[in-house]
Amino acid sequence: MIEDNERWTLDLLRKLIERDEYEKRDTRLFHAFQELNDRLHQKEVVIGQHGEELPINQSQTREINKLAALLDKKEMMLQSQKKRISDFESREKQMSNKIHALKYELQEKNKAIQIANDEILMGQIQLNLLTEKAEKLTRENENLVTRWMERVKLEADQMNEVNEFLKQKST
């Protein structure tokens, strides 16, 4: 939102500067026309390029024609510059949209990477828990086997003692 606001402000300032420059260029033309108009009303005579005296009206007409041609040339240049500005603005908008799309794509990829990392971490935690449980069960199994072997040995010893006792008694 701030970026759009700043862009809008910068565009407005740029357009105001362009307008001021355009008006400054035309100010000379307006002054020239005003001067010609003043001369027209004074009915002065102007010396032409070849030394002939020309009524101010013909001279003014010639200057007006020159200025009109210059004005047309400047207007064509201005149109060309406006076209270039429009092309640059269009290109800037395309690039801005592409940057926005790439930023969005990058955010989505970062989210996918984060999800994958979370799943890997969860898998490692589960593996650690299962490894601990397997080790605990192995220890319990070994403990039970040891206790069972001791009990079987004790029973075997007791049976041997009973058999010894019975052998001794029968003899």
TrEMBL record:
Belongs to the ATG16 family. It holds the Pfam family ATG16. It comes from the Eukaryota. It comes from Scheffersomyces spartinae. The keyword Transit peptide does not apply. The keyword Ion transport does not apply. This is Autophagy-related protein 16 domain-containing protein. Signal peptide: none annotated. Residues 64-169 form a coiled coil. Keywords: Coiled coil. Residues 62-160 form the Autophagy-related protein domain. The lineage of its organism: Eukaryota, Fungi, Dikarya, Ascomycota, Saccharomycotina.
